[in-house]
Amino acid sequence: MTEIPVQEAPGHPAIDPEGFAGVAARIEEQVRRVIVGQGDLVRGVLSAILAGGHVLIQGVPGLGKTVLVRALGDALDLRVNRVQFTPDLMPTDIVGTTVIQEHDGRRDFVFHDGPVFTNLLLADEINRATPKTQSALLEAMQERQVTAGGATRPLPVPFFVLATQNPIELEGTYPLPEAQLDRFLVQLLVEFPSDDELALILRRTTGAPGEEPEPVARAGDLLAMQSLARQVPVADHVLDYAVRLVAATHPERSGVDDVRRQVRFGASPRGAQAMVAMAKVRALLDGRPNVAFDDVAAQVLPALRHRVLLRYEAEAEGVDADALLQRIVDGVPRDPLVR
Fold it and tell me: d(Cα 255, Cα 273) in Å, to the nearest integer?
């Protein structure tokens, strides 16, 4: 069995694979104090954070997306800022601006940090802002820095963007360009709660205030867990499987007939990176020191659904990216010798 080196963060205890799963379980336990159901969503968002990536959460209003982000921030003892994206939001409202400030009879230009200078940035309804404002997040998401006021300023460590968007609202929205979508490690879907879950939500939210999440990890623990996740080995034949899955999303390279007919552009290399990074976290959460085929297959939809551009034929036939990706998972053999 492959041994994964223990990872340490300055001023924090070492994290080993067993400790990784234990800390993650405690974080999820705290989040479930305020979130009813949504097990896949909670695990998906936490996994993406442990993998070091940003998350795009899609769901109709009122399903607890904002509450989830704040609960994660509390459990991880991270600073959380929320920005409500609207059509009149300006880039300076996000990254900050330079103002003239007078002190002791002198006037100086002083940069005032915007809400992007945080650990968890909740970009609520991100598709309601104009493309110019959306693009203000590109450098922050990719480089973890902001260039404004004639200087480049690093963002706090760690830094994540958790953005939400409403899938059914079209008026007054601006679809995210492919370049920005590609910056999100995964896109997760929020399902409507079951009847029992909805009843429990009503009891929790219309009665006396319930328990609040307590911090069970710190930024240093999170950084050590991210470092440990990167050390998880991936065998060549499993890596080859991930490569073949991404290649199968490209019409000119795919062996799946529906893909050749209904997909315009396939997933980018970042899609393969996201699949492998998330698969490593899934293996650790399951108590395994290496990545299996199932770990990779389980990440195809969240890692690739926002990276596949469909043709009009697919939309006319009511076929979405998830359906096509599932056909790819079903059609791409795991044995590298079978093509």
Answer: 22
